[in-house]
Design brief:
single chain, alpha/beta, 5-stranded mixed β-sheet, two-stranded parallel ribbon, 6 helices
Length: 153
């Protein structure tokens, strides 16, 4: 993300243990601005909403997941460019599968800021289908917290 975007904001849980403090330090050392989501236990929707509200000045958001570290900077830049080109949402596709990160323009601030629960922005992407960006980057699908993702690693 740091190689592809001007500003990277990491939404994190409170630093209530040694592992979380190490994560906070690593992200800060990597040049990320941290925003603490006090409601992280309520699901990924609260993390998305927390990040959007904390960066309300932004023209849009490129939302990446921490468990998908193999995404190439070019794929991230392509999503950001699609937003600048006027697409309301955008996502990379590897073959027929939509990957990450997913981009949202400022026009979707209100529904993003209202997200709750574990669905994230899935329902929003149904009503606002992402502009398709075909990439040759398998990393847009490689999720390290799933058995299938680990098998591909």
């Amino acid at each position: 993300l740091r190689d592809a975007l001007e500003e990277v904001v990491a939404i994190v849980r409170p630093a209530d243990g040694a592992a979380q403090r190490r994560l906070h330090d690593a992200l800060t050392d990597a040049g990320c601005r941290l925003v603490v989501n006090e409601r992280a236990d309520e699901g990924i929707g609260t993390s998305l909403a927390c990040g959007v509200v904390a960066t309300a000045h932004a023209a849009g958001w490129v939302v990446a997941l921490a468990d998908m570290p193999a995404i190439e900077p070019g794929s991230i830049r392509a999503v950001a460019q699609a937003l600048r080109d006027g697409h309301e949402t955008a996502a990379p596709f590897f073959g027929d599968r939509r990957g990450h990160p997913v981009g949202f323009t400022r026009a979707l601030y209100a529904p993003l800021a209202a997200l709750r629960g574990d669905e994230g922005a899935r329902a929003l992407l149904i009503t606002h289908p992402p502009h398709r960006i075909d990439v040759a980057d398998r990393g847009v699908l490689l999720d390290f917290d799933t058995a299938a993702g680990l098998a591909r690693a």
